[in-house]
Specification:
The structure holds two protein chains of two kinds.
Chain A: E1 9-12, E2 15-18, E3 28-31, H1 34-38, H2 45-52, E4 58-72, E5 74-83, E6 88-89, E7 101-110, H3 111-114, H4 118-128, H5 144-153, H6 155-160, H7 166-169, H8 188-194, E8 207-216, H9 219-224, E9 231-238, H10 241-258, E10 274-275, H11 279-314, H12 318-321, E11 324-330, E12 332-341, E13 344-353, E14 356-357, E15 376-379, E16 387-392, H13 394-399, E17 403-404, H14 414-422, H15 426-432, E18 436-439, H16 442-447, H17 456-465, E19 469-482
Helix pairs in contact in A: 4-11, 5-11, 8-10, 10-11
Chain B: E1 7-11, E2 17-23, H1 26-41, E3 51-58, H2 62-80, E4 82-93, E5 96-105, E6 119-120, E7 126-130, E8 133-141
Antiparallel strand pairs in B: 1-2, 2-8, 3-5, 4-5, 6-8, 7-8
Classes of the chains: A alpha+beta, B alpha+beta.
Chain lengths: 483, 142
Amino acid sequence: MATEDIKLNRLEDCLWEIPRQGGMRVPGRIYASEKLMAGLKGDNSLRQVMNVAHLPGIVGYSLAMPDIHWGYGFPIGGVAAISVDDGVISPGGVGYDINCGVRLVKTGLIFEQIKDKLTRIVEALFSLIPSGVGSEGTIPKLSKQDEKRLLREGARWAVTEGYGSHEDLSHMEEGGRLAAAEPELISDRALERGLKQVGTLGSGNHFLEIGRVEEIYLPQVADTFGLFPDQVVILIHTGSRGLGYQTCEDSLKVMNKAMSAYGISLPDRQLACTPIQSPEGQDYLAAMAAAANYAWANRQVIMSQAEKAFMKALGINPRELGFSLLYDVCHNIAKIEEHTVDGRKRSLCVHRKGATRAFAPGHPQIPADYQNVGQPVLIPGDMGRYSYLLVGTESAMEKTFGSTCHGAGRVMSRAQSKKQSHAINIDQEMARRGVVARYQGRGTMAEEMPHAYKDVAEVVETMDHGGISKRVARFRPVGVIKG
Amino acid sequence: MANDRGTFREIEHTADLGAEITAADLPALFASAGEALYALIADPATIENREAIMVSATGANPEDLLHTWLCELLALFNVEGFVGKRCEIAYISDGRVQGRVSGEKLDLKRHVFHTEIKGVTYHDFKVWQDAGTWHARVIFDV
């Protein structure tokens, strides 16, 4: 069925439904403005929403957030809540980059204080935080024993090793550690890939962005998060690196072989899955948790390296810099969560593939100091226009299993973006946007230029309008490093 | 074995990178698919044939075999940093492929690096034969 033949019912201004049909077990629901929906006609993402609806045990809807775009298996921006008792787990619903996520770091500085030293800061960041491609990591190569400890402990491992502080741990989803992690389930090849990549950004769409607080929409909430106008903040976007990619690949192979024994047949092999309660399902959950812990340790080390880079470039001490973690979110993950469905509490495995958890105020999994305002949601933009801080709502709990968007969402293929970038001088274009950029591969940068993305403002406004997550602040990028 | 060169072209995909490969026979298809993977990672014109490695993979059918072959090449890049310039298939039969890949370790000072590839996805992954010509379609997660 071509995308243009998919029947869509408009339920609300920014909410569309694909009725249940064929092998779909639930309807599909897409959050999108009319403009964003029009942009989906040219790709396969709506078909992917339908494919996800085939997963055994899926509850409610196959959901898509407004940054939805064509992925592999799940659409990017897809959310599927699946019954823990009789449903499946799908590594494709998490993705290769397990626990790819974002953290937002505050400083005590305003933009005026760094303006003249921005190039120096970006150079220092670029030198202390490698991409990890074709080079050593930022910290000495680990022993396998240390690596396994890291896989059990997550961000806590990094803090114990001297990267950051214990206070940081309370400002991460799950405290930066999934307790179900089992390093013995990680293959030798995945372990090998992980040995020297701790503290590396990777390439693709991963980046570190220096921003300034440009607009505050909810002053009281911003105040609770410690944000003020023109403040310098840092966004770090990366994940579990080669260890996570390999773990996904290993698990997909196992599940593709095992699936038929459980009588499961799906429209896309990338959706390969087995029952959550099966040995394969349980093994994947434990391996995924270990890879997720690697990602938290990675972001923790990068944050600590970024602090060193700022101090070196500005010649100031930690107290003057005032580096502190506002929050860290995962946007490629499957988590076992309690949700109320049709008035009944249920244990669900919520797959978020390019989607962010957005829990409401008062939820027990939100840090104590944010209980009154809700969970921070971090939305990196396109490195050229703006990034956002949002906050979770009760509406998200009721309608999207506590989930919202994760970024701008691509609108242009990488090949197209590269073609358009041929005609422009990337450095000049970023400078025109007021951004000092340093990057490893011109190809990646050309594929990731702002013109390849939707306007992230439209994406977050859609979620704000639908009451799913509210805008708290907008950041203007001023410096970027990329692998 | 016959190793007439196949061809590949990049295909449009919003989030990721894809390639469609065409060749007269299976060995050429596998060789070209490997070269397509490497061309997405780095500019082959900047890679030199400094060393050669033997790579083998197994799979139940041509589709699985091509998938594991590409996964092996990607793993060797990720663990050893080895980027191939030219692939030659020495043996392909009964669910097993063996090839010789010449190239060198990635050196960011000399090579034009494009992007890291996270995985060889199964999404829309296809190997098929049409009027005596072999085709493959693969989408890589980047």
